[in-house]
């Protein structure tokens, strides 16, 4: 049974930082690209960042470049999203996802976490 369990969300003031983690089990972690997505209330899910199997290829949404950092620890089957200089409009449920093969900025991922709420207060 594949499980992706996010942690690290919560409430933070604008300009603050949070670090999300996503612990993966039930699959060969090093064979999957990983991604982070988010969905704000009343909006469609959007791409945030993706990282290849060994971390050599990374892509970010333009809106988070320079502020967010995606990383992974294949020894611990975990992917991270460091979020700095957060903005109120980035309040959303953040999801991690796993994809066999290469990175993708669309939603074509095989496995998804349950989501983790991030709230940025103004």
What do these coordinates show?
The chain is mainly beta. The protein is built from no helices and eleven strands. The mean pLDDT is 97. It is 0% helix and 52% strand.
Q: Quick summary of this structure?
A:
It contains no helices and 11 strands. With 122 residues, the protein is an all-beta fold. The strands form 2 sheets. Strands 2, 4, 5, 6, 9, 10 and 11 form a 7-stranded mixed beta sheet that branches.
For the largest beta-sheet, the strand count, sense and barrel status come to:
7 strands, mixed
Shape: globular
Low-confidence stretches: none
- The secondary-structure class comes to mainly beta
Q: Roughly what percent helix?
A: under 10%
Number of strands: 11
Radius of gyration: 13 Å
H/I helix tally: 0
Order of helices and strands: EEEEEEEEEEE
Task: Give the distance, in angstroms, between the N- and C-terminal Cα atoms.
Answer: 40 Å
For this entry, give a set of tags.
mainly beta, single chain, 122 residues, 7-stranded mixed beta sheet, globular
How do the strands and helices of this protein lay out in sequence?
Blueprint: E1 3-7, E2 10-13, E3 18-25, E4 32-39, E5 46-51, E6 58-60, E7 68-73, E8 78-83, E9 92-100, E10 111-112, E11 116-121
Parallel strand pairs: 2-11
Antiparallel strand pairs: 1-3, 3-8, 4-5, 4-9, 5-6, 7-8, 9-10, 9-11
